[in-house]
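Study this chain:
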Amino acid sequence: MATNAVTAVQLALTFPLWVRRRKWTFSYVDDTTIRQRQSIDFRWPDAADLGDAGPSDGTEVLVPLWIAEKVLLNDLNITDERGTALSLRNRYENGRIASLGMTLVLLGVAGSRGIEVANQRGLSDTVDAIVTGSREDAPTRLAREREEGTGDLARILEVDDEYLALLRELASGFLVLVPLIYEPGRSRVIKLSHQTPHHWTGASREPRLIRLGRSFAATVGLTDKYQDFPGLAIGHSTGTHFQIEAPPEVELSEAVLTTRQHMQEFNATVEVKRRQVVFDQPTASLNVSMPAAAAPGQLPLQSTDAHSPADASRRDKRREILAGRSDEADVKVRLRPPTRGTFVAIAIVTALTALLLWGAEARLTELDGETSAAVLLVVPAVLAAWLARPGEHAFVSRLLSGVRILGLGGGLCALAMTALIASGDIVARAPSVTAGRAHCTAVVERLAPNPVAGRSHSTRRSIRPTGRAGSRGRVETFRCLAATRQRGPALVARSAAKAIARGLAVGASVFAVLLLTGLGRTWIADFRRRNKDVEEKPLSSGTQLSSAPENGAT
């Protein structure tokens, strides 16, 4: 077990020397789950590259394919190039093997550097606590050990090199180990896939209200939805390929790759941002290779092979490659709802609804109750066809949720207006009592179908008592008002109905403006990217020297 443990750690320390290419593929299972697939193309290194106690040809070796975060990996599946499933050590066994191998390797490093280890048992316990500890506590324990600087571990890891880099990675992650037969010089391709949770509103430290607002704006087209894949290890292979697959019907507008790589020329970490504009394409592809040297403003695209006979000095090349072992990359993707189909239909229907409601509000007392209600009921019927679409991808449904909510709001406004028109009597002119002669007139517009003509009709009730205003006139006036009080609810309803109708029209207009604004912004963005597609589609790069110290240098 000790030999296998040391070999596994040595392989993890020298990832870029034997792993030639990693291909990451990100796809969306649904709105809350992302499927990550990884293809590892490697060539078995020589036994001499794995230390003095390297494995023999034909023996079983535990190969570290990847250093995963200490989180639950759902639906983990590992196969070889023929599709044969490979067994996987559980997390407890991985922790024991990595802890033992790391301890033995650090003891060897201490011997080569002339450092005397006073307490080997204490060193083993410290390494075990870091490797098997939680992702929250282990990094803190490692930082505390280095800050104190009195323990054996701090003296061994005084230099910021690949050993410290690996221990940092094991503090927050674990080795994914699979058993394979060691065959020096043979090329292999191992495929790994698992599912990770997708936080729709993001997992940043911003207030939740801000994240919810940004998420809703993305669902109505006012902004793009951003998806981040941070902290991807590109120093664990000579070349790395990222492929992002958008869900069906979702537009993938832009993919940005930001790398932090060690440049030998500057002896520092250089940040390089590259962008690929994608238009009407379901996938985006981004590539990065480990540079041998970088000129300012240029990105070296050719990889370096430590096994090539053209290399003048293998030891120098090995040191140069391992200096970039801690290189990382961030991938940011911009997604937007499709402008065809549901988005366009709901936006147009909601805009027409707003216009109809404003027309109904302007002629509220003149509308035919039956015909007008029938016309307005067509709007919810049309919207219903787009508000629910069975078989739609869950991610698309979530991305169009804001569009559907605004469309539903417009439909509800139309239903409310229909109920208002069909509710009964709406007064066109209020009653009046003239001075000097008891006179009362009440005119009522009843928006109810005429049983004879099939049209609405007006009923005029005029009460004109005789005599001048006096005690009898006051009595007749009271009788007049009492008679018109039978229509009291209808008299009061007119002003309330007008206010309600205006509010419904304003609400539908707000919904329509939001939808049309989001649709217009999306169309304009697509038009601009289409014109710049030929110009920007080749990866453009901008190099900036960062203040980060050199990582992984030997």
